[in-house]
Amino acid sequence: MYAMMPPSPSTAMFLLDPFGFNRAACDYWGDALERATLYLDVMRQRGNQYLEHIEKTKPNVLGFEAEVLLDGRDLPSPVNYELLRIQPPDGVEVDPTSRPFVVVDPRAGHGPGIGGFKPDSEVGVALRAGHPCYFIGFLPFPVPGQKVEDVVEAEIAFLRHVIDCHPDTSEKPMVVGNCQAGWQIMMAAALEPEVFGPILIAGAPLSYWAGERGRAPMRYTGGLVGGSWMTALLGDLGAGLFDGAWLVQNFERLNPANTWWDKQYRLYANVDTEAGRYLDFERWWGGHVVLGADEIQYIVDNLFIGNRLSTAQLVTSDGRRIDLRNLRSPVVVFCSRGDDITPPPQALGWVRDLYEDTEDLVANEQTIVYCVHDSTGHLGIFVSGSVSRREHTEFTANMDYIDVLPPGLYETTVTPAEAHSDAELIERDYLLEFQRREVEDLDREVQHRPDDDRRFATVARLSDINLGLYRLFWQPWVKALATPETARWMRRMHPNRLGYHLLSDRNPMMGAVPVLADRVRRERHPVGDDNVFRGLEGIMSSGISQGLETWRLYRDGLIEQSFLAFYGQPVLQALVGLNGDAQALRRRPGAEPEHRRFIEQRRRATRDRIAEGGDHEAVMRSVIYVLGGAPASDERNFKRLRASRAELEPGIQLAEFKHLVREQFFILKQDRDAALNAIPTLLSGKSAKQIEAHLEHIEHVLAASGELSERAAARFERVRELFESAKPKRSGGRARARRPETPAGREG
Questions:
Q1: What does the buried/exposed string (b/e) look like for 51-86 if buried means 16 or more CB atoms within 10 Å of the residue's CB?
Q2: pLDDT 10s digits, 441-450
Q3: 64 pLDDT higher than 90
Q4: Angle CA 604–610–616, to nearest 5
Q5: Domain limits of the chain?
Q6: Which CATH fold would you assign to the domain 66-207+323-445?
Q7: For bias kind Basic and acidic residues, which ranges apply (predicted)?
């Protein structure tokens, strides 16, 4: 009887499709259609979010509550910037007497707020460390007539206000500048160095001609279009406004595989879980803002093409030279080899542009610390949660230490605490170590080529010629035809903006999408990763991505070779007035005779102070001397040294401590043997017990970062002998200090 019954549906399906390909195909295509519907609905939400965002008076993507303290539109030279005080979230307490942190937002085409985009951000890190936090943001449209100089002066005014808000804090604010904001705050610090504490510039380009061949295609852009006349044209078509969407489009073209496929496919493939993260990011990425035509023209002419910032050629309208050697605050440069917008040569090249060698840098009393990440991209430098929890947390925790570092060039490395034998003594999950470097060591990252300098100098000259021709023949006609209304329509029709409008509820054809998407969510039938067709989809996606990446490599190579061939022609260089020599445009400022005289005067003044001071100077001089022989140092040395100083002289301020460290460093740098032999003189009048206590303090500080190297240990033994020789010896009832001779051949 059972044999006469028809087979069950599953049995029949197995007989018709023994390997399951048809069933897998049906399941896959059903899932693919559902994902396509949900993907289209996310695009609709993105469009609605964009339209809502740009229609706000003060749009931003800050993830923290904030209050406006100063509005830049009320300043004598009004600008569209404002100073905000960040309100700590629930459960986070800040100490109003701690060093304030100021994060300056980059204005490079996107909307404001990226520095405080989420809890694991620069703002979040500073708040969790207990620091009062401020944010300098901007509005979508510039004030008519505002200039780059006005913005720089506004940022200086904002910092003065922050200092006034903390009268009981002796430390100046730490200032963080991301991307475009980095070079802007460096300009401000060069003009008014006294209002700045330590400066952190993350992914900020300062040397625009620098770059490694094959890896920095954006630096060729100005040459490919014949200079900055195109910028002037777009500003004129915009009726005095420049659409930031053009800048965003340039960024997107750097990585077509990600822009045209990977980012969208990642959403499509994981639409059930990826929508929230995608929309959060697009809220910032798509929040295009507008710059003044005069602003962007200044930036392109003087920075991107002229490269005048890192060579001290910029002069303000009132005659002040913007020279980065004027900075008196430590500068932390954070960049990444995975950054194709600001590669390490452009982030670090300004040091090589300004300084001939380390002696030149030290003579200017500059402290420069750099950290090169191996892989993170441009946005990851100041947005990535993992980078914030690691590098930014360590920079924040070590900022007081960085502030008192002696002048020089340092490279930092961040290592897990468990990698150290004394991990139990390390307060956090990571340890930031500092290693001394020479300016010449930067050549590995900067890869400077004089022949490339000649090419970029040729671009700068040709740009001036083409811009002059445009202004003479075409600009009057363009300005006569452009109106605010045509400019508004041109912005709306920009490809980067148009997509948001078309895929939004304002398009009647999108009306059915939310209804279909809601039904799909209620009756979702996802397939697993074991579906063979889902696997084939992933393989196809990888192939498309690799194809676009191959095309990018070919395109970038063609652009580079075309640029090098065209602008490398001696005839062209001679025609624009260079005659194959770029030195007229790129002379290192440190080579000027007046600068050499300044350095020599400083050296003479330092030599005169070798024997001045007392036991505090002797202790600091000894510690600096010994640590100078160590391969690396970290914050533990600083904390113990500062604690020892507090015991010796209660109430000492960080600024006084910093002055002492720097003064003793310069004395050692000028004449080390004379400085060491003067230690007994500095200790004269102290009892043997006091001198022994100083030696114990020095040992305590030096032991903080582990066992001393052989070289550092030898230096400490020399210091011990000097201190021992300074102990009073009774001779005829009077105490006297003996100054030992430096043994011949002793390690210095």
A1: eebbeeeebbbbbbebeeebebeebeebbbbbbbbb
A2: 998 888 888 8
A3: no
A4: 140
A5: 66-207+323-445, 593-736
A6: Rossmann fold (3.40.50)
A7: 738-748
